[in-house]
Amino acid sequence: MAKSNDAMISPPDLGNDGPRFNGMPLSAIIMLAAGLAVLGGLLALVVMTGRGDNESPLPPICLPVTLEEASSAVNGGLVSRVHVLTETGNAARGPLAVTLDLADGNCRELPKGVQGQDDFYRLVGGVTVFNQTRASEAQRVNVLWEAQSNIPGDLLMIPTETPLPPTETPIPPTATIEAPTATAVPPTPTEVPPTETPIPPTATPEPPTATAVPPTETSPTETAAGTPTP
Prior knowledge:
The chain is of the alpha/beta class and 230 residues long. It has helices spanning 5-8, 26-55, 67-75, 117-133, 153-156, and strands at residues 20-21, 24-25, 63-64, 79-87, 97-102, 107-109, 142-148. It has five helices and seven strands. A five-stranded mixed sheet has the order 3-6-5-4-7.
């Protein structure tokens, strides 16, 4: 024969420890439930904190960049934000660092310190001109000025130029130009053409002039031999 349900459930004990449930004090059951709830909340907090750390990406490492490269990135629409760092309470010192947030999630950083302020001002001026003349609403570069305290001293130090000792420029030895030694050259005999001595003309003897001799008269007594007879 089945027992009734009323016979199975024992009535609460109202002894010195207060009411009981299944032989345990009700206050102990409430404290145990509260402790379990606190442990569950702590466990959930630990799980959510750990999950949040895993999901949040680490900040990127900003690589160095030159002024020319940074200006080219700005004009090319590759920069979304520019951070300019100043010292808290001493804005007159000027910018001390400039960081560029790129549209692809990376970042670039100009050389830090007071010595780089000329580049900082030029970049910020270039961003202003780009926003006013060339950028669309989607390409505008936001410039954020931030102030921090406890700036490292090396960023505030103005480099002192150490004068370099004068460099002695070696003077090349002067080449002594020796006067050329005159070499006695024997005189070259000049050929004198022979002088033609004029030869006086030789007198050509004239042929003797024939003198006409009158004929000698021969006497009749001349001999045949030609001897005259007395």
